[in-house]
Amino acid sequence: MAVPYGTRFAVDFDVVFPQGAYIVGEVVPVTEYQSQEDKARNRPVRPRIDEATGLPIYKVTIADPSAEKDRDKSITVEIAAKVQPVPPSAMGNLPFRPVVLEGLTVQPRAETSGQAKWITWVVRATGLRAVDAGPAKSAPSKSAAA
């Protein structure tokens, strides 16, 4: 089976985050690497562009309470969007904000350290939104309208 390099697999939010996801910190833009020479010449910092969508990339740290291993308790998610996503407002004095990631995809990536090799996942989204406060409102029943 040949899967083209760079393939991203769409996945439901509830599959990746069965106990929900929580923003830690802020959403920040990702920029291209800038060498010391570029900095010395005052060249402008350029945003990093997603090769699949052509949109600027932003990143956010997400806490995952359902993670089995300590190293997976927080992950960085890349968000490709025209404008910088605005996270939901904080609830009281809590440092965590519940969020739903939209357009979620995962992409496998091989990692190595010495002779050890393993697969990690690049998690990407197209947006984020606040968790719905309550159940969706249903349409009025026909018997009530009669």
Description:
This is Plasmid replication, integration and excision activator. It comes from Actinophytocola xanthii. The protein has helices spanning 13-16, 36-40, 142-145; strands at 9-10, 21-29, 57-63, 74-80, 96-102, 105-113, 116-125, 127-130. The longest helix has 5 residues, at 36-40. Residues 133-146 have low confidence and may be disordered. It has one domain (9-130). With 146 residues, it is mostly beta strands.
Q: List how many beta strands DSSP finds.
A: 8
Based on secondary structure, the structural category is mainly beta
The largest sheet has its strands arranged as 1-6-7-4-3-2-5-8
**Portion of residues in helices?**
under 10%
Summed up, the domain count is 1
Outline of the structure:
By secondary structure, the protein is mainly beta.
Secondary structure layout plus pairing:
Layout: E1 9-10, H1 13-16, E2 21-29, H2 36-40, E3 57-63, E4 74-80, E5 96-102, E6 105-113, E7 116-125, E8 127-130, H3 142-145
Parallel strand pairs: 4-7
Antiparallel strand pairs: 1-6, 2-3, 2-5, 3-4, 5-8, 6-7
Features:
146 residues, globular, single chain, 38% strand, mainly beta, disordered C terminus
